[in-house]
Amino acid sequence: MSGRQSAHRGFRRLQRLTGILLLLSSGVGTYLLATDASLWLLAFSHAVGLMIVVAIDLVLGLYSLASSKSAYLPSIAAAFLGFVLQLGDVFTAPQYNMTIPYFAHYLFGLWAFDLLLGLQFVVVIVGVAARPHAQYLARRKTKGGRDIDYSRRGLLKAMGGFAGLIGVGILLGSLKLTGPAQPGAQGSQTSATTATGAGTGSVANVSNLQIGIPVPFEYPAGYPSSLVKNQDGSLTAVSTLCTHVCCQLSYDAASKVYYCPCHGSVFDLTGKVVRGPASTDLPTVLLRVDGSGNVFPIGVTNPGPCQV
Ligand code: FES
């Protein structure tokens, strides 16, 4: 077999492998988008970014499987970028009120996230392994080698193009977040919202509370919390950011529990975990009631992973 034929064969084999890996990566990304509601509810811009990565992987996977030489560099560029962006996700933790180690523990605990990361890494390795073949074919100006770009410049150009595309998607996705203030957003002050009928600075007045009906408030400012009057007249207030990955809880009036729309955790009105995946009870907001019955939040015990 001539050197040209062997280079051809080797290149085609590795390119087909790249195609399969990219299609798998696209499938795993789709699985994540379809099964992890926190992507949509908590990090919409990340969901948009992942959608673009999935689409790019799909197109390049098909082109690679069809042995299109022009897909060679873009495949490596897309996989490298996808790998870096996924790792970079970990550092966006503060944006979602989590510490980086906590968020990293959550992300790396997801098999689909790890698999996606692994597939992209392997695509880069396969691309590097195919480079000598690409180089040989391109230098020989063979029929099949003419359209193979293996240059560093071409790689950076492809990477820049994909980065721009993903960046625009993430930007458009993040515009969705500019509505109501995000919990823990910059500039938040440590203060409480004042409910109607309550004294200045207080979150409610005891006389306006109904037994078992939660009253939402923010404490500290920007962090959703909830106050409930118990059967015996005592008060309970908890933070309503889920202790799993900090999605905002909703109150389910029928079951009288707080429900997390992201992964389905359930907490009772005192903040105790009723159903996981969350394993930590909600932080309790300490209260002071003045002589007129006005309720003031004065601190938080057992702060959870959401940095309350
Ligand atoms: S954020 Fe995952 S269950 Fe609440």
What's this, in brief?
This protein has 308 residues and is α+β, with helices and mostly antiparallel strands. The protein is built from 7 helices and 10 strands. It has helices at residues 3-35, 37-41, 44-65, 72-89, 100-108, 111-139, 152-175; strands spanning 204-205, 215-218, 224-229, 235-239, 250-252, 257-259, 266-267, 273-275, 284-289, 294-301.
Q: Largest sheet at a glance?
A: 4 strands, antiparallel
Contiguous helical run count: 7
Structural class: alpha+beta
Query: Order of SSEs, N→C?
Result: HHHHHHHEEEEEEEEEE
Distinct bound molecules: FE2/S2 (inorganic) cluster
Fraction of residues in β-strands: 5-15%
Please tally the β strands and state the result. 10
Shape, principal axes of CA atoms: elongated
- Overall mean pLDDT stands at 86
Strand order of the largest sheet: 5-6-7-8
Uncertain segments are: 178-191
Termini gap: 68 Å
